[in-house]
């Protein structure tokens, strides 16, 4: 909010991270102590963890008044939890960071230094990624997909460790969607020349494993493609035009052959059944894609909330 005396807000989406939260908060507080400021807040958003993360958050909150905690009513996903934190952030600069300590809080000053170079958003990029081979592959696919959908510069890397000016946070939370994708919302609200990178160290994961599996990543990509582009509809429409044009050419060829040779004819119901099945399947695919868009429109109109809060202690 404009005129706020709060300088920094750090948002941490939390999922099954009871063993890392205390160290994360302690190291983050030490960073701001070195920056010689007390005007900061840390917002922990529990995305309905299965472990005792909420209990750990409550203990931290009682010991540290700078820490605000929110618990969602069910598991909505990392992006939804991050958006929830953004709605309650009051700092002039908002920092998002993961809960697994692979992002080093000590690198926050690097993000802030780059942000002061005239940018509105700075995303961390890693000197060396410490994910496994499969996760690195999925990350590269995600980066290329974002670049393609939003015409982002080829040298721009997108990650969840970011520093964003509050005025851009205000723009992001004005976008009403039940399927938020933070990187997409950033590109939607911020010119590409106001988004930059800074190189940081990516740590090995100390405890547990990533909450993203192939199915969750597939769901994330589908949300990105369907909600922030018209690619499925364009592909479906293009495919329909090609099939229709091909059918027209084939029909014209049959008529021409019949005129040139009255005895010409196609015998056999197999070809007819194959063509019918092919066209019928194509129509069903098109209907399913349109149906998915309609389902999401219905969700936006009837529900329209990307998260629900069970409880919070601010």
Descriptive account of the structure:
The chain is of the alpha/beta class and 314 residues long. It has two domains: 8-213 and 307-313, Spore Coat Polysaccharide Biosynthesis Protein SpsA, Chain A (Alpha-Beta Complex); 231-302, no CATH class. 50% of the residues lie in helices and 14% in strands. An eight-stranded mixed beta sheet has the order 7-5-6-4-1-2-3-8, with helices on both faces. Helix 9 (231-260) runs antiparallel to helix 10 (269-302). The chain is elongated, with a radius of gyration of 25 Å.
CATH topology title of the largest domain: Spore Coat Polysaccharide Biosynthesis Protein SpsA, Chain A
The value of Rg in angstroms is 25 Å
Order of helices and strands: EHEHEHEHEHEHHEHHHE
Work out the count of structural domains. Answer: 2
Q: What's the name of the CATH homologous superfamily of the largest domain?
A: Spore Coat Polysaccharide Biosynthesis Protein SpsA, Chain A
Q: What is the first-to-last residue Cα distance?
A: 16 Å
What is the average per-residue confidence, as pLDDT, rounded to a whole number? 84
Class from helix and strand fractions: alpha/beta
CATH class category name of the largest domain:
Alpha Beta
Largest sheet: 8 strands, mixed
pLDDT < 50 runs, ≥5 residues: none
Number of strands: 8
Assign a percent range to the helix content. Answer: 40-55%
Number of helices: 10
Content of β-strand:
5-15%
Strand order of the largest sheet: 7-5-6-4-1-2-3-8
Shape: elongated
Annotated CATH architecture of the largest domain: Alpha-Beta Complex
